[in-house]
Amino acid sequence: MSNAGKTLFISDLHLDADLPAITQCFLNYVGNAAGSDALYILGDFFEIWVGDDDRNQLTDTVAQALQTLAASGTKVYLMHGNRDFLLGKAYAERCGAQLVDDPSVIDCYGQKLVLMHGDSLCTRDLEYMKFRKMVRSERWQSDFLERSLVERHMIAQQTRQQSKEQSSHKASDIMDVTPQEVLDVLHDKQVNILVHGHTHRPSVHTIRLQEPINGQNEALRIVLGSWDSKGWSLEFSEQGYELKHFPH
Ligand SMILES: [Mn+2]
Known about the structure:
The chain is of the alpha/beta class. The protein has one domain (about 5-245): Purple Acid Phosphatase, chain A, domain 2. The chain is about 35% helix and about 25% strand. It is built from seven helices and eleven strands. Strand 8 (about 205-215) and strand 9 (about 215-225) form a beta hairpin. The longest helix is centred in the middle third of the chain and has 21 residues, at about 150-170. The radius of gyration is 18 Å and the shape is globular. The two termini are about 20 Å apart. Bound molecules: manganese (II) ion.
């Protein structure tokens, strides 16, 4: 099937050297993406990212695959997630990709979309919002990146462990997006479609709007899936969209 006139969105692959089946699934996906207009990777592409200088076989293989896709004419975009927010320009360049802001508004075949990772929408998780603010500060990031790779990996492991423990005590609605936050983003950007990942709850939600946006009383929130048990991809074209999943 031809990919001409298609734009693809994925997120939450959580690529990890210890989970080669997911990496292989991604490499196959990238091979099949040839000919598409664009590929957007909306965060948590890697399970962990301690700096672009942490080169290894996984990050090299992935960069090579994306570089090949980009060289064939598909535009490749990377957005930060809460795991890989330290992924920098150097690595993006190795992928032939461009880093994009969270949120970003794009025009997709005449339809405006707002793209996000999704963690910033989960405002009821006050503990996480505090942590996010800290680690997204320039000061924290430069302090962290000055440490040795060994130290950075140690800190990342500890943080991951703490976050797992805390998450297990949190109510499930706290870990989901705040509905009012979604409305605020849609109204602020004047867009009727939001695409995000992060929550690992793939779905298409129709939202009734109290105040119309672009003359419409409805908006869509399309949630991408995590690749832990299968792959997920959103495909957009002039004909519409489809949220697909496929086995590893
Ligand atoms: Mn996430």
